[in-house]
Amino acid sequence: MLQLTDIERYYRNGLRKTWVLNRVNLNIKEGEFVTIMGPSGAGKSTLLNILGLLEAPSGGNYEFLGERVDKLSEKKRSELHKAYMGFVFQAYHLIDDLTVYENIETPLLYRGIGKKERKSMVAEILDRFNIVAKQDLFPDQLSGGQQQLVGVARAVISKPRLLLADEPTGNLHTKQGDQIMELFRELNKDGVTIIQVTHSERNAAYGTRKIELLDGNIQEDQYLESASAL
Amino acid sequence: MIRNYLKIAFRNLLKDKQHALINIVGLSLGMMVAILIMAYIYHEVKVDQSLPDKEEVGRVYRQWEKAKSLIIPSPLAPALRNEIDAIESATNIGYAREGLVVIDNQSQYIQDVAVADSAFFSVFRWAFKYGNREQAFEQLNSVVLSTATAERLFGDTNPIGKTLKYNDEVLCKVTGVLEPFEGESHLDYQMIAYIPMHSSSWTGASGLVYVRKLATSDTEDIESSMTAMANAYVRQEYLDDGEKIDEKRLPEWKIQPLQDIHLYSAQMKWNAYRGGDIRQIRMLSGLALIVLLLAGINYVNLATARSSRRSREVGMRKVMGASRVQVRSQFLAESLLQAFIALILAATLAELMMPIFNQLVDRDLSLLLILASPFPFYLLLLALATGFLSGIYPAIFLERQQPVHTIQGKSYKGKHTSTFRKALVVFQFTLSTALVIFIVIIWQQMEYITNQELGFNGDQVLVAEINTEDGMERLSRQKDAILQLPGVQSVSNVSGVPGDFSPDYGMELEGREENISAMMFFVDEGFDEVLQLEVTDGRFFDKMHPSDSIESFIVNESFVEAFGLDNPLEKRIRFPYEEESFGNIVGVVKDFHYRSLDSKIQPAIMSMRTDIGWLAQVAVRLDGQQIAASIHAIEGFWKQVEPQHPVKYHFLDEHFAQQYSNYYQLQKTVLYTSLLSILVAILGLFGLASFMAEQRTKEISVRKVLGASVQQLAALLVNAHLRLIFIAGLIAIPIAYFLANRWLQNFAARIELGVLPFILVLSGILVLAILTVGFKAIRVALANPAEHLKVE
User: Fold this and answer.
1) How confident is the model over B581-607, as pLDDT tens digits?
2) How close B779 comes to chain A (CA, Å)?
3) DSSP track, B528-594
4) Which residue, among B306, B319, B398, B406, would best test binding to A if mutated, counting the most A CBs under 10 Å from its CB?
């Protein structure tokens, strides 16, 4: 599905360059559930941002579905976001001024989906995530776990082929975290490719592949056969 | 989608009420001014536009190097009719603001009367309700009335064939009634009378001339053939009188199109009709734009300052697939929503302020009256433009931010944005400070002018107009009877008083080759007493010298100075067309301001010649003890002078002050604008300051924990803003100086520009800013630091 070749990311600090990612090569196939792990400052979030086209690499090649995407215009990137990607963040990043229903509906608005269809899609996902009762509440009226549920619902409402999650359970209790991870696994079974960044081995165990990042290099890349058994 | 934008915009509005309030109040103040001025312009440009003849009809004026005059010699109109083929018709018109009509011994004044020749209705082909246009002016002493006047004078009946006495002198027959005009027109005469008119020679002037040209003809061609023709007559007349002509003093003869008359005639001499003035429209539009601009800047400043709060939302939306256009649309929806709310508020405010505004522009406008017109469409356009222009920068600014930064909480703190904001604040305060300085200087100048020594005393001087020749004769015979009336101290029969237009006469000064020119007052021997003029040399006219009334002259000091007379009492003057006698200068009066103080005192001559001058006014000095009784007595006395004319009078000091009405109007206009602009600027400053203070709450708390005092903290917050205001003041000073200096050039007598107004205004505005910012700063500085620190 996506192919990174010699991806670099550095920041200029005066005359010196500080590397965050150093010649990363990575190939992820459709249907994988990848966990990126590593200590703070290893470049996990940067890698995820590059994968999600939120940040451009300083060098290297990024092919997404067979197309070069590392130097796209904002408009093209926005189109790819709309067509293929969903995002989940550690801090949920729900829009405070919108209700649960409206938050989930927003991506559909940007995709120009008709009112009737939007209604049924949102209703369906509210139902699936068991948050129908909360649909008229505002984010600050929800618990962290509930907010993240909404965050995930919002990310997947438009049926993305790739779901990117940056520490999706970082602000949650274990139990709430497990709930989210269960959800991820279900989505993955339905065919959604997932890439998540996390510190938690527990979360990583839900995935099919684990990548260890250290100082901007891939240290370890292993496929987890036992994942489904857990 | 749009509904979604609006919904979010509305919620954002409610969420931060203070911010929304500042924006909306500011915008609505700016829009209120804009609405008032748009209503005014809308009204002004419509005047005369629905006249049927506007393409073909125009008004003749003469153009000299420096002046334009609308008063045209009477032989022009017949000559145009006979000699210039492209002119279909031309008519002489004498305009009177009021004319007296007597029917069955009942007299009443009628406003806006035209005295015209028989060609009037061949120039103006207006529709008649009664009577026939072609035949209306077939016979001398015919009048045509407006529908309203016909109803007033004769009720609902058809008045054709009825008679009335115009000015109690001429018996006229009603030959027509006009259909009412559609829309407003400067030609909205209540009565048009075809009666004998004063005529003049080619070198004189008598009244207005309107022409109808052939639709196919070219105005410039007509103008050049008219100029050639008319100037040829003028030259011939000079030659016949045996005088030399200065070719440079011959005017160009031009035609002003009907549709330009209302707005482009203010600078023409003898413009009795008080129309609009395109310069005033331009100035008002400029001022409206300034206030609107300042309000727009408030919006931009507050929106960009608050952008850090919104940037996470923008980033999130982008990640969810919002395109730039969609983000931009959302923020534009917010500014448009606020602009439309402001519009409703502004329209309400405008309707409330309309009485004040009407007084300012001397009109009778009402928003309610133009609701059915296309005007509301312009209002919507105004709101759209305001919303769009003030929203577009913040929208673009926000849409540009990289989502990855904003989502990670690195809010975008562009250095150039805050510089941009500062620049806008400086710009706002520069404009408003300059305006405030300007108004202070205008005020100083007006105070100076109204307190100037005028050289005459106009208090308690009642001036009455005489309407008929009979009346003039009767008054001059019974003048002394006025002195017997209660409270009357002195009386004088005059051609004009200070503040009136005084005509310029060419005179011969003995021993000088060329004619001299001086203002002429025809007076009697009571003039110096009534005006309390000071005689500095010789004597004033005196009954003891009967020859005064035929040959003596009095001059003013400027006359003596202008013509370098060492011994004025030995000099002699005469009217140029009188062959024989020169008359003696018998006295010199101290200069008095007979025109407004924006012009210098010109040489002036006084004469008692009633055969040349029209002593159409009588000035009466009252003792001021019993004014009501005096006026009552004069009204009674007037029945003997002009039995049918109720007396028309005014007081000289008020009459003289009216010359400044334009300046007072400007003073008021600038006063209101400067107040509004400073209010809007302060409002914006308050919004910005409270936002900054909130932003720095944590920093303030840390400083406080480290031992900073409340004063130090408040100073810290206040200083940042004060610097900007101060810079703005420094920039405003030269601008205001330039503006004020240019304006002061209008006046012959003017104040010296001191530093005081500048210092005063600048420190005033600084104090205002300190109060505005300090209020917020102290509140933040007083807050308990623990509350703000423990959250982090």
Assistant:
1) 788 999 999 999 888 877 788 899 999
2) 27
3) HHHHT--EEEE----TT-TTHHHH-EEEEHHHHHHTT-SSGGG-EEE-TT--S--EEEEEEEPP---
4) B319
